[in-house]
Amino acid sequence: MNSERLGKYAYRWPGPDFGSGGSWRRMGPLAYEMSMSETPEDLSRDSRWPALFPSSICYVATSDGSESVVERVVGASVVNRFPFVVAVSCCVKQLSSRHYARRAFPEALEKNCTAALQFFAPGDSVDRLARVIASTPDDEAGRRVALSGLATRSAQTNPAPVFADAYMAYEVRLVSPGRDSDGQKIYESPWTDVGSHRVYFLEVVAIQLRRDIAEGTSQILWRSLPVWSPSMAAGFSSPVSTPESQSLPNRYWKRYEPHYRFPSAGTAAFEPEGSAEEMATKHFPPLPETQLEVDDDRARWPCFFPSSLGMITAWSDERTPNVMPCGSTTVVSRQPFVIACCISYAAINVRYAPRATLSMVRRAGRFGCGVPYIDDRVVRSIEYTGNISFRDDPAKVEHAGLQVEQSASAPILPALPIHFDCEVIGEIKLGTHVMFLGEVRQIWVRGDVGPDNPLEWIPYASISPGLSTDK
Questions:
Q1: Full-prediction pTM beyond 0.85?
Q2: pLDDT tens per residue, range 169-216
Q3: Is residue 377 exposed (0-12), middle (13-18) or buried (19+ Cβ within 10 Å)?
Q4: Residue 216 zone, left/alpha/beta (φ > 0; ψ -120 to 50; rest)
Q5: Are 228 and 373 in contact (CB under 8 A)?
Q6: How far is CA 61 from the centre of its chain?
Q7: I need a labelling partner for 394 at 20 to 30 A (CA). Which of 20, 53, 291, 384 fits?
């Protein structure tokens, strides 16, 4: 998958105004720095995210059976495995013409309690839907589905409209109160307010996947990291260690591939119970105990979900740097600018086990979030740090081939183009994972990032006929 094929869907950051005065400060030839001290006036003029965090785009529809509302959502993320929960964030406070208070969608979702998250490949259908949502006022949001002119059908488990051209739909409901494996209460409320946004926790009830994809005659292509070309050799040290060199030949090892293909030999198979209207469907039992899978491979996400990855950093008590790649990292609020990362605390298997990073972030009250990009050295470091615990290798950052910039708050990985320094302002227990809410206090950007050398990100997956394992 390349940007030539996807053309106008490629987002490039930074733009031409980057570094020209304003909040960014040049810190010598190697970096820019920005302290997050935005005023309401600043935001009303420009509420774009101050730096790129790669996030996918989906469309969420809800209905009471008579009136339907659809909204465009940036950064929907899987945040918990058992139960299988997705979080979506919706602006509920007026910041600017870009970030305005949505009323129709939150009111409808809270009334109906069910929805369908839908994913489109780039093309005419998603263009039309995006235009209709952008041009239809919030108080007329109930007209958007009809105005799009796109064919729909009802979801199988609720009345939400599912667009015929969506290749995948997650049917969801607002999560119910429950208890985790430790008997602790979870989801006393199905949403939480974080600054300018409301974050909804949606339990997956069923997944619809286009039949040709489920059968492997077509394939989803997802580039899960941005593309970027550094012009400075900085941030890398020794070669990345291998599993064999760590004398752990029998342990479960998760592979990482930023050019992700679903289905493929390296993914879990989608296991539908049936199909209708060209869609294969899998339903999920209502209780986490009946969903629980102890086997590492079967505990994977049961279907593709487009997510990017943050490199979460923290200091140990001894000021040793630690990093954990987190595929459940997303932006949940614009004011303040808040990044959420979800870290496993439940003891289920090797894939889902209590992480050393969890206690470090808790004790420090801070974490860093680095933005990785497609590069063989970066990918190898993601794979190593995602498989080796700090408990087994306190020098895991060094053994991953990464250098560390000393910082009072959280380690900075200068190999990565963007780093967010976050202060923990909240913690939510979700069942198998804890969501840490990190208010961004400072942003660090490498000196070779700029308008003439931007990061490129594409927030949509594409569909390819046939089954291939090539990159």
A1: yes
A2: 999 999 999 998 888 999 999 999 999 999 999 999 999 999 999 999
A3: middle
A4: left
A5: yes
A6: 19
A7: 53
